[in-house]
Protein 1
Amino acid sequence: MEITREDIVRFIKKASEEMDANKDYLIELDAASGDGDLGMTMSKGFQAGAEAGEAFGEDDLGKMIFKIGSAIAAKVPSTMGTLMGSGFVEAGKALKGKKSLGAEDFVSFCQAYYHGVQKRGKASPGDRTVLDALKPAADAAAEAAAAGTDDPKELTRIAYEAALSGVEATKSMAPVHGKAYVHREKLAGVPDQGAIVGSLLYKAWAETF
């Protein structure tokens, strides 16, 4: 397995496209339990990330991923913008010096991304947040790589499907943070919008291959 600079450029472009395509849906979900601006911030943030990725000229992929995260956080310094940017920043640190990524490096990306978001946001899996998509994806990728999965198409598909399962699980979770907690009674059966953002990130990885 080898993930190249060109693959990462394709990935972040696809992530930007997914955030833009789902902008209205995310706005609708967020309006029920938040500020209603999630779709706009993710669309703008990931567009900035895609531009940063495409413009990056060095061969250090960790540094490239770090720059993508910094661009997202700078463009949309909202709660979710900061969280998603922090995931890339942490993953970039973990992959510093890498000129291509193998299966274990992809796992490192997934795990570092999750830990970066968790550390910044102070939430936990089960709190009905983006972590409920990111953690299953990271765990599934790690299990698949440990079992010998080396095909990027298969590995990213497994991570994406786990993220989708995480989104589905949020429908029965009670929120414990922010405005979602205030509106918790009307959120039963509704997926968490942050978890959907996390699943779109892994959808972009799967679509890259």
Note: The radius of gyration is 16 Å.
Protein 2
Amino acid sequence: MKVLVTGANGMLGKDLCPYLEELGMMVIPTDYDTMDITNPEQTQEVIKKVHPNLIIHCAAYTNVDKAEDDIETATKLNVEGAKNVAIAAQEIDATMVYISTDYVFDGTKTEPYLPTDKPNPINNYGLTKYQGELEVQKHCKKYYIARTSWLYGIYGNNFVETMLKLAKNDKLNVVDDQVGCPTWTIELIQGILKLLNKPYGIYHVCGSGKTSWHGFAQEIFKQENLNVNLKPCTTEAFPRPAKRPKYSVMENNGITRDWKDALSDYLKLRKEY
């Protein structure tokens, strides 16, 4: 199988490309310098020339807070970019996987969000990712929308690494009133591959189970045997430009492992780097 990956230099892309190659797939990694997804002509030209069977669209504007002031750039990348890739995929009858987010939801539910639940984003990042979902559905018949959440991996700034850096602080306050599903990049990749055997549509590919950011930090320190003076706090204690959903737990129908087991494997792996 020939797979084109957008955003190949991002945290997910850097894990995804070698993973697919190890499975014997021919991988065409692309990023801004090789295929500018905001340029429809170039996007179509590159995809038509390469003619992949599968396109995994990882490229995105992911700075949640910055998107509040720069919705123009976020829209260009997350909406127009997704549209351009979807149109190009449809032209060559390729399957497209669009990576989306739990932030398409408003967080007002008290039980896990289903793929069929109607999105209602409360920040610009979530809004542009949802609009991107709509563009993919509109322009590409063979699509999978994979919503993920609280992503961490070896090749990017993430919550796990931040907590380990802050572990030496005298006191550490972490938000305890936002609940979601931590997801390791490798779990997301394995989940995406499982989707390819399912009907086209929208899926939730996130860690199984749920926790708060405080609970996530607690588990990191527990598994690393670190004694940290960790205290819970409210979202209001750490005001941010973008609102976050208080509850963004998603039902994944068992597509990935328990988030604690995945975290354990990640913590072992990171020691090799």
Note: The chain has eight helices and twelve strands.
Protein 3
Amino acid sequence: MKNRKYVFLLALIPFLLIAFLYEIIPLAMVIINSFQPDAGGGFTLENYSTVFSKLLYRKAILNSIKISLLSSSAGIVIAFLGARAAHEHGGRLNSVFMTVLNMVSNFAGIPLAFAYMILLGNAGFMVNVGKEFGISALADYNLYTTNGMSLIYVYFQIPLSTLLLIPAFEGVRREWKEACTLLGGGRNVFWTRVGLPVLMPSILGTFSVLFANALAAYATAYALMMNNISLLPIQIAGCYTGEVKIRTGLGGALSVTMMVIMVIMIGITNRLSRQFQKGVVRK
């Protein structure tokens, strides 16, 4: 048994090596660079001062948080309804639904931005339909704004969150529904009093994944807006690929700021999840 244990540990070495080389070392270098001037050498907080004092970077932080919260909230609500439908209705239709989810979950980045340009751009198909039939919501839709881009983020949040929530619904037992019905409670009573409290830890965990996914999204936003919108991933990329000079210190400070925002959100959702779990156990 001991020999088998050591064999399993040896099997982990390639994974640990890859994690060390491609995750831990780059992360440490980003943090170290964030406290160094671009010229190199010494210790400074100038990069963080620039991040929180310059309007461009403050706006990037606010825009990224806003889009991440809006898209994650909308995505989790729609995903809950979709996962619930998949849980309650099995058969061939459910298999088709899962196939479509897996397909659209990989449709992101530049192709997604191009698709939205065709549909909702200034001369897009849906915009022209709105002008033709007098639908102001479509005719006046401006894709090239923060609110307009939120719709794109919602699109790629829905399949991801649905795929993450569907397994969680397997924990909702049919016996609980039958017991609720026997006690005089309807479907709405069951989901508000039993289903949602049980699923809430999974919902909160999925929300934190969606928030991190939206906060770090880069390709779609850059393909659609280039540098015309201030978002954290775009500003970070600009620091490392700038045409004038590379600003590794500022890019590191922005990267650390993004990581701190993610950690705060994960901490909040984990704490809420533990509270819901304690509440369910007490009940």
Note: DSSP finds 13 helices and no strands in the chain.
Protein 4
Amino acid sequence: MKKFEDLGLDPKLMKAVSRLNYKNPTPVQEQAIPPILEGRHVVACAQTGTGKTAAFALPLIQRITRASRKKAVPHALIVTPTRELAAQVEKVVSIAAQPYEYKVRLVVGGIKYKPQLERLRRGVDILVATPGRLLDLIDDQHIDLSQVQVLVLDEADRMLDMGFWPPIKKILGTVSPGCQKLLFSATIGSEINKMVGVHMQNAVKIEIARKGETVRQIDQSCMPVEHSQKAELLLALLGSSPAGKTLIFTRTKRRADVLAKILGRNQIKCQAIHGDRNQSQRTRALKDFTTGRINILVTTDVMARGIHVDNIDSVINYDTPISPEDYIHRIGRTGRAGKRGDATTFVSPDEISAFRDIEFLMKSVIPVKDIEGFSYKESRIVPQKERAAVKQKPKPFQQGRPQRLRGRRR
């Protein structure tokens, strides 16, 4: 295994590596850092939790030079899909950039515009931004991207899913054609490939985790249930075993709020976090969850990508995700750093098709788990308890109680 010293990082950055408590480089860091230091465009496909932030932050800091001391003229730009991810990236970059005395600024939506603008006017070397707020600054002519030497698009597929592709295209058209571009994404689809072909010719392509891979340390299960019984089943599940640090995912923001209130009425300390919460509420909820003041956080997919909270014991998909890729990102919040994690997915009859797609993507079968003594409605749809590995798109689940398969699925 290579060490950080073997990757071409200068001594100043090695001190930052020590301050960040990094021991040995992860595969994405090992493969991405050298070509970035060479000035190459890089397209890296890797799942959440593989060390992508350091993979671009460390070489980016070494690559840039202060070509200009003008205010609000950054030399490096990092674009991320969410405020929380942007804040975490800014924290890592700020620590790593300290020996260089670079000014690292954060601009995101949900926070007052004027204070962020005033900080930019005091100077910026490295800018971390969400697409919407960055576009506001560009349109208002408060920032000049012509001197950007390195542009990072972090969680590019998530930005595409969230409708940020038009702002990204505008940003790509604003930076200098000679700007080095780094794209990090959990999946690389046709739209991203098209953009890479236009703006990142001859890019070094890195693939660490192939589509459909999941963390081996995660114990996965599904719980078939009628939608009307989901809240009751969740309370039973939380009461059936010691509740560690748990993320509960819902499909909508309203459902996250309703569910948090239900849990609160049952003396379960929790908070909800989603896009409609203001930044102070989101920051407080994440801090309470990180510090252990609360053990349960109810959220939408805003938390599924790039939010690094240590020691999450379990993930509960209260709603089956529509996208199989979102399932992988959700459950990837647990089972990290060599520790085992638990992921449970509630599956109502109208979610059967989405659940089959998840199994098909992973080429594996997720076992059924029931809570003994819980009074399930007979109308729930239960998959067979024993099925061979999914090698083709799964057949519809059977109605009624689980039955034993007599033959292997072809």
Note: The first helix runs from residue 11 to 19.
